[in-house]
Structures are given as C-alpha cells and as structure tokens.
Write a structure and sequence with these properties.
single chain; alpha/beta; 41% helix; globular; binds pyridoxal-5'-phosphate
Length: 394
Amino acid sequence: MRSATRLDVLGTEHAYVVLDAAKQLEAAGHRVLHLEIGEPDMPTPAHVVEAGIRALREGRTRYAVAAGLPELRDAIAQALPARGVRAAAENVVVTPGAKPMLFCAALAVIEPGDEVLCPDPGFPIYASVARFAGGRPVYYPLDHTRAFAPDVDAIAARVTARTRVLVLNLPHNPTGGVASPDDLARLAALADRHDLWIISDEVYGQLRYDGRYDSIAALPGMSARTIIVDGFSKAYSMTGWRLGYGVMPARLTAPMITLVINNLSCTATFVQHAGVAALTGPQEPVHRMVAALRAKRDAVVQGLNAIEGVACATPAGAFYAFPDIGGILERTGLACESFADRLLDEAHTAVLAGTAFGPRGAGHLRLSYAGAARDLELALDRIRTWVGSLAAAA
Ligand code: PLP
C-alpha cells in the first residue's frame, strides 16, 4: 500500500528532526543544549495557566464553536489596534496554533499553478504548504546587506502574471529581520498593483527590540487582501497549548471556518479561555521576556562574533541568530549541514543548518536564543571549543 502522491510535495520543519536526534542523545545520558527549537524558556504566565485550569475545573471541556469562542475572537480583535489594525471578531478564526492557520490560509487562497512568493531563507512550511495547495513557491532573497529586510525591488522582479500570494514573516525566522515602514508601504503598493493576497505571519510581531509593532494590514486597503497569521506560542510562552488564529477579510471567514470544520473541528475550549486571559490580562510577562531576550541576543551575537570565521548580524526581532560561518566552512571543508550534525554528535549542541530554511541559508546556522541564559553561555563555550578542535585537526 502506498500513500497518496500529494504527500510527496510536503517539506518538513527540520527543527523537529534535530530535536528528535537531540532527544535520543539525551536518552543515552548526554547533556544536550537545545538551540534548535524556537521555544521561550519562560513558563506560561501564571494567570494564563490559572485561567486554563479554572476552565477545566468549570467543565469547559466540550466542543467549541468552530470559528473560536466569541470572547476570544473579541479579545483578539481588541488587541489588533496595538499593531495598527482595525478588525472585528467576525474577521477572526481561531486554530490550534499559527501553523494550522498557515495551512488553512494556503488552501483557501492558492489555486493550482499559482505562484507564491516565499522568503529565502524562510520558515520552510510556507513553500511546503504552497506546493501542497498546488501552487509553485517562488523564492525572494533576503540578505545581510539589508539586515534581512525584504528587498521590494527583488520581490517585484519575481512577480509574473501567475503570482497570487506574497508571504511575509516580520520579524523573520530565521534571521530576525524586520521591514521599515517605507518597505511596508512599498510592499503594500506592490500587492495592490498586482492584486496579490498577502499572508502575513506575525508570530514574532511583539518580539521586536525597537519597540515597534507593525503589520502590513494596517496600511490603507491592505486588510482587504491580507490574512494575518498569529499565535500565542512565542509571545506568551504557550508553545504546547496550541493556540493561534487568522485575521482575514470577512468574505473569507465563512469558507475558512468550513475548512476548519473539515480538518480541525475546533480549538480546545479550555485552551481558548487561557488565550482570553493572555490577551486581556497583564502584558508585563511579554515585556519582561523581550527585555530578557535582548540581553541574550546581545550575549549570543557577541559570543559568536568572537569566534574566528563567524560573522553574525544583530537581529532586530524574534529570537534567532543567523551567523554566517563561511570562514569556518572554508577552513575545514565542511558544509553547514555536516557542521550542524557534527556539533550535535560531538559537542551535544543542537543548532540548525541554514539550508533548513532554503538554498540561501547555505553557509549559515540558525541558533535559537530563547533558551536559558546559562545554557546559551555553555553552548557558546562548547561551540568555541569544538570549532577550535576542528581548526587544530585541520
Ligand atoms: N510561523 C513561524 C515563522 C514560526 O517560526 C512558527 C514556529 O516556530 C510558527 C509559525 C508556528 O507557530 P505555532 O506554534 O503557533 O504553530
């Protein structure tokens, strides 16, 4: 028996593959440092946990309406002005995480043969779900000379008569890049000119070090062509709760809910109550996390740049460093994939090869600095020592 061929076009998220290998080393008794998975070390804020527990105790353990609890859709709509977006509860659809909403958004707007502009490097799921929906991912480059901000001219040069969707992810995984207000305005004009949908993945929207909180959907006319994809995993340290949502033009909400009914039914009811608490309760935990991340970012970037053959830009948002390790690879003859594999096997430090995010990730690594500060320090020590041993062997 074989699986349907449509599955053959799916890509994967390499972080889970490396996490699995790292867990096996742990099971064998090794102390592994996890810089592969994008997960804050801060616990879920106590008032959010309490709301979830209270909901369970109150028996909120039954199906919820497919679109999401009215009070959560409301809370999401009321939180949108913080990023300049005005929308109502009926524009919001709740899903178990941002990822299911990415999947639904792709299925909802991509026709077979459509071209979908995806960032390279970028979150690998964009190209995967674009292909799954019958589309053709077309990569647009992000590079360090622009601090990994989208290059509007380079994107415009890739637009054809078949282009239907522009995927944005700001702040960006894996580089931490953001877009200036001017870039956003030019991207909006481009989308308008070519009548493109925008899938705007804003899961790191609140994790910016310049205090800005932007969305392309805030620009005139853009909410009519944008699906904001967002979730609670990152900003509220709720990765395991599985809670996310989409904000979309009202005409898309009904078919999107039908899509949700077909594959998810609804999102766990008690989890949605925790989500209401996250949005309507104190935002202090988010601010504290951003302050802690800033200190970790600075330490990691400084530590990486102190290693010969490494050049690491300072990310403006999210919690990933994306160092260029070309100097080391040249010296040792390794590729970034074998570097990452051996760093895990020999120094028990899990990172991702840049190519896990697309061809332009070659020569890079992605390190998540969302973990505990002391683990990051130890990881930098291990990387430094291990790279030193490579140099000695060479
Ligand atoms: N989008 C990006 C860019 C991500 O990095 C991730 C998680 O790593 C997600 C979406 C998925 O988030 P969630 O946990 O809400 O499904």
